[in-house]
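Hi R.,

Here's the chain you asked about this morning:
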Amino acid sequence: MNYKDPSIEVLLYKLVSGDTVLAEYVGSDETVATVANPVALVINTAGRGIALSSTVWIPFAREGDTVIDIKKEHIITTLSVDEETELYYDKTVAYLKGDGDELERLRNLSKGTDFMTGEEIEREIDREVEEEENNKLFSDNWTANTVH
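And here is the predicted structure, written out as tokens:
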């Protein structure tokens, strides 16, 4: 799925603070890694399995692209991500920036994947709850009787 400029690389950074950050790699020198649009990942294990959520990593930044330097001494490891994770990241950034057109375009690309934004997860949960309520309503009103 080649849906964006291949020169933009999204990397996962695990930091000594415990933060896990997805960001666009901009460059680096001997002391810092420069990244754009960093997003903090939160792994939730409550409920039905593992859920990934994301949030702004640097709150209160000016609007627009956020480019920051991370001191290399604060980085434990850096990993490349697969296309689905990159798509999840791009959807998150579009959502956080309020870019509805880009978000819709990315949602159309992600149909059939396991990665959803928080808003998509909420809609899916609402749909499942409604379906369960409908099933309960149907089963409460109909009783099957077997005649022997």
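One quick note: The chain has one domain: 9-141.

Cheers,
M.
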